[in-house]
Design brief:
The protein has about 375 residues and is α/β, with parallel strands linked by helices. It is about 25% helix and about 30% strand. Strands 1, 2, 3, 4, 5, 6, 20, 21 and 22 form a 9-stranded mixed sheet that branches. Helix 5 runs parallel beside helix 6 and helix 8 crosses helix 9.
Amino acid sequence: MSTWGGPVDVTLTNGRVVTPSGVLEQGWVSVRDGRIVAVGEGVAPEGPTTDVSGCTIVPGFVDIHCHGGGGDAFTSSDPLKVRKAASAHRRHGTTTLLASLVSRPVPELADQVSALAELVQEGVVAGIHLEGPFLSAARCGAHDPAILCPPEQTAVTKLLDAGKGTVRMITIAPELEGAVAAVRQLVDNNVIAAIGHTDATEAQVRPAVDAGASVATHLFNGMRPLHHREPGPIGALLDDERVTVELICDLVHLHPTAVRLAAHHAGLKRTVLITDAIAAAGVGDGVYDVGGLEVRVVDGVPTLAGGAALAGSTLTMDMAFRNAVNACGLSLVEAAYATATRGAELLGLDTGKLQPGCAADLVVLDAELKPRDVMVRGEWVKE
């Protein structure tokens, strides 16, 4: 997807506008010089306008956990393939995303980080998320257990150095040796420490959160199950006001009731919907490679070949938004916050909200809540 004619100065009128404080049923959004300058209801200000009657305007989606799409993965050393993957998600309204990498040996992972860092600096992706290799073999999911290792300081330092400030989040199993020290190391380097792929007890989770871990990597999935006598990581993370919980809202990883319960308990400020998408997103069924493991996608559901373990998703953020509203019972405001606002807040970005002063990243959804138009920094995009 490419820009279409450069930044525009325009007011989108007569649409339903979803703001952090509520829905404007007959609203308008004014864009100037790549930023939102005004939002209102009723009669739009004078100047160039585009009528979006019958549509819903939401902030551009922010996906903080995505491995690829359009047939390509972010593990590729070919920048054209990385751009293609990012573009595939942009077509579905994702204006900001983190490129997630799966577990590989630390030297190989450092090379992948180094290659991606240049594309982060260009703005193709907003940063890098390392989902491994500091994970529990007991809850490895689609990560090669032979590669997993404890988060030793030298290994963490090597990965951060390779990223030159572009690594924004790393997932760690808190029960591993050195995990709490690693969390402190990440926080000291302004990197989000996330907890995931863990078989930890509640007691093992608490010290990591106290040390600064602030995100639950795809809550429920890749974790010791919730039990009424041992809440484990799910209970500890969901009930801690310091932790934002990721939810894969594809209706495969989580039942709609689980999404609703978690989102309503965590609230707006602690809920973020993600895709955990692999290269198959936007492409279809087939055989794919995920971190050196063979993954088969059948009817849109990726699983490890020869097993039943889920291996990411084929989800896009617009689908996550629709699922949240239509299947999980979230309001438009809740869904917009979870698909855009909270992710932007976590990353400290000036996007994710339809309010004056924010970057003009937005999606015009049709009557079925499917993307009709996408704007990035005030520029319409096209394939």
